[in-house]
Amino acid sequence: MSQHKTQNLQVSFRAPNAVNDQSSPTQGNPQPEFRWCEPIDAKNIDPELPPLTAVRESLPIGFIELRSSLPETIAEADNSFVLSILEQKAPTALTAQEAKDAILSQCYFRAARQLYSSMTEDERYRCRLLQGIFYDTTPIPSFLNNAIAMIGHFRCEFGEVRIRHAEVLLRRWVVIGLETGNELQTGEKLTRLMLSQAVFRDRSSKILVNSLIEERVKRISKSSFKVKSHAGLLRVFHPLLACNEDGLNRVSENYPYHLEMRRLIMLHRMTHFEWRTAETIAGVPIQIVLDYLGVRLVVLSDEELYRCFTFALRRYWADYKSLVEEAFEVAEPVATGFGNACQTVSSDDLQATFALPLSDQDISMGFMYNPAVKFEFKPRFCAYSKNTGKEMRTARLQKEYGELRR
């Protein structure tokens, strides 16, 4: 369509569906790259074949996305029970409520500790300034430990499953725990809902933002709009743009969402170094661009997060620790080095459900956490490259063909 004809076009369009709903990863159309896969059996590999990365190294079969509110789900499973016990021990109802909030705050910190214990060496190195949270062993109510032990990279009957964006999740849990204990020093009022979608000025957050941008641009490209021309109404789709300089140059002002797409692609092209200091994108505050993705930038470094954590810990020891230990049986928080999710409860091609393994003693004590409601994980599994099996078969056929020629 020529340029002089597009100037007077009347455009109507439908807004694309919202994205970044991590609590419902199956919402929307599933991406074709997410498929169930079976790990390669090392016993069936010919030792004379050249080593393949996906075979010789311990790679995960996929990733699981955990909700940022999972520690709160764990802590408040028996909310009324916990509060009633505290009211019997605390001098006032206000103190009991504050102690319950302190337990919730500690649950976020201990979930972060358990997650850190299961991280890979590379992930731990990038979170090394927060390792003091791992070494803190302040006792917590023992009934929380079983549920917290689920968290982290874990192994199931299909192979190793890792937490997606574990470093971002670790920092989110720390900052939500600080907000719960009123120890967050950001200069602005941030709710727990905002912090559940927090991103930080670090490499792992930039990787998460880039993936959200790619999903958003792809979703906008799938949206349609109507163009009124001399032939009538035409339904037109956005061109699928890459998040690079060529895609940026192809963003047309005649399309809806052109400003959003331009800003998102510019943010995607930003280097990790620029991400640490950037305040604006094309003259627009960076938070306005992040609002397209449904995330919130928290300008706190790891040093500041850990300093706030130490303040919160001192307050807990001074005001609530003795009351909590008087009301409940306490134990050292878990740090198992791996997640303790049980075997698959149900699975299909796109998702699997894991549940908390309850012992008979737990059930007799009344900790009836419902696996189908309270601790249901819905992971997205990313399979190995399909070329891996093809390369193995090709190499084996080449070897057999060579032996026949002899």
From TrEMBL:
Pfam families: PsV_CP_C. This is PsV capsid protein C-terminal domain-containing protein. Residues 1-34 are annotated as: Disordered. Residues 1-11, 19-30 have a biased composition (Polar residues). Residues 324-372 form the PsV capsid protein C-terminal domain. InterPro entries: PsV_CP_C. It comes from the Eukaryota.
